[in-house]
Amino acid sequence: MGDYKNLTDEKAIEKLKTLAEDIKICMFCTELTELPIATRPMGVQEVDDKGNIWFISSKNSNKNFEIKEDDRVQLIFSKISSAEYLSVYGNATIYTDQSKIDALWTPIAKAWFEEGKDDPDVSVIKVVPSDVYYWDTKDGKIITLLKIAAAALTGSKGDGGVQGNINV
């Protein structure tokens, strides 16, 4: 079944930051009350000291229009190679402040914005997490896989890793 470790305060923000910035790409979901849920991959620019997750986005993207209608979002992170997973529900806010755009800008973002960080279409999205859950391994992927294989061979209960809430 695994261990449950609910994290709070600095440990929660540290875990959120480590997972989100390491995995880097998430499925960014909007229109959570509609089926199908609108989903697209997005790259995390930063997780700040308060646990807020920042993205660069086009002002004219569907996601920005959807956030203006309903600011509730879900971010789903998955790193199969190390068996790390993160689910974040939160509220998104769109900013056009040039100083924040400058602070978050990376050269790869130019692929979406012809005029670079000064492109009038650039915006940033801040997601303030309200409900966060993580799944992780205790010993790394290889040891965990060996433990699962041993449990399958012996009929004993497997090691389910570590999971819990992150309260930021």
From TrEMBL:
Q: Which residues form a coiled coil?
A: none
Which InterPro entries does the entry link to? Split_barrel_FMN-bd, Stress-Dev_Protein, YdaG_split_barrel_FMN-bd
Q: Name one Pfam family in it.
A: Pyrid_ox_like
General stress protein FMN-binding split barrel domain mapped to chain residues:
12-158
Q: What is this protein called?
A: General stress protein 26
